[in-house]
Amino acid sequence: MPLSPIPAADATPAAAIGTRSSGTSPPAPRRTPLLGAPTFEAPPARIVVIGVGKVGCELLSQIDPNEFLVTAVADSTAWVAEPKGLPLKEIVSLKEAGGVLAAHPGAAPIDSELCIALTTAGVIVDAASSSPESAPGALARARAALRAGKKLVLASKGAARLAPAELLGEGSAPRVAASAVLAGAGRALQLRVRDLRRSIELACVPNGTTTWILQAVEQGAELEEAIAQAKALSICEPDPSLDLCGFDAATKLAIAYGATFGGYVEFAPGPGADLRALDAAEIRARARRGRCTRLVGRATCDGELKLQFEELAAGSPLAVPPDRVAFQFHFGRRRSAVLLGTALGARATAQAILTDLRELACGGGVR
Predict the structure, then answer these.
(1) Could you tell me if residue 194 is inside a domain?
(2) Helix (H) or strand (E) run with residue 347 in it
(3) Residue-by-residue pLDDT tens, the chain, 367 positions
(4) Which helix (H) or strand (E) holds 272?
(5) What are the C-alpha distances in Å from 292 to residues 108, 209, 217, 283?
(6) Do both 329 and 232 map to the same domain?
(7) CB-side exposure of 325: number of CA atoms within 13 Å?
């Protein structure tokens, strides 16, 4: 019997960690109504955010300063730090107006690894670019954070692409949370990876943007029109070609494979994974037959990976709607486990990051 789908990054906000006290003196004790024991308000957890693009700005806009104190931010041009907490609205306004942090009065062009080592923040959030050329720098930052005793929330896929077993594999969960790396399903994989390693095959629909475009075509839109709409809604990667050519899906497939079965695997999308080469008429014909088209990644436990568009039955666990991704692990004898993610677009990705932040901060006493 198939196992029930396992929900991944739940975007519902968790309870607030605490509220910030004012002044420099310790917060006044308060008594609980039932026990009468004195309690103290917890200070906000101190965090650093690397990457202030669409996801980073959305995250800064959603953060409650009574819950998290952002003491530093960084983009590709500079760092801006303030131990007492940064003015987040000011940072977001600068970036949304097309500015860079190097233009901020408090900017400092300091090496990222040095800044991570010196910060007093307990958690580093990496929401920087997932472009192929940025991956080595992302991995260097991740390792610098862990060496410095920090906890790490990953949204950028670069580091996980190069070191999936190290960052998402067994034993990673206490110090690394990576829901957003797999579009909301990363944390669920981390927490189940020991069991999932016994599977013999992985099948996934890992890219929600592709599914959104395919569904628009199924409903009558032309392919070019649907692609333009996806770009206008900002549900594509900062470089939309990473979605359209299959690179983002291939990256997630390789990460899920490497985290589960162990180690880095060289894998790039072929021509069959390019959305722009599809026949819109055929996509609509399948929809009329009650079936759908999805970009499906498959990997065997011995390292055979492929990524291509497939026709799926409506009842398939992989026939997910555009706001879902699915990772299905087959164990043989008709037994499988499905991890679902819900992080499509900047807002949902930021919510997945916040869920990870709350879990790491609460679970490890980070302040």
Answers:
(1) no
(2) helix 345-364
(3) 443 343 343 333 333 333 333 333 344 444 444 555 555 467 899 999 999 999 999 999 999 999 999 999 999 999 999 999 999 999 999 999 999 999 999 999 878 888 898 899 999 999 999 999 999 999 999 999 999 999 999 999 999 999 999 999 999 999 999 999 999 999 999 999 999 999 999 999 999 999 999 999 999 999 999 999 999 988 888 888 999 999 999 999 999 999 999 889 999 999 999 999 999 999 999 999 999 999 999 999 999 999 999 999 999 999 999 999 999 999 988 899 999 999 788 999 999 999 999 999 876 545 5
(4) none
(5) 51, 15, 11, 7
(6) yes
(7) 37
What gap in Å lies between CA 320 and CA 96, rounded to an integer? 32
Q: How many residues can be counted in the chain?
A: 367
CATH code for position 55: 3.40.50.720
How many alpha carbons fall within 13 Å on the CB side of residue 234? Answer: 9
The whole-model pTM stands at 0.86
115 and 226 together in one domain: no
Residues 130 and 220 in one domain: no
Task: Say how many CA atoms lie within 13 Å of 64 toward its Cβ.
Answer: 17
**In a shared domain, residues 38 and 57:** yes
Report how far apart, in Å, the C-alpha atoms of 77 and of each of 98, 106, 118, 123, 153 are. Answer: 13, 13, 19, 21, 21
**Domain carrying residue 323:** 201-344
Residues 6+ apart with CB under 8 A from 195: 337
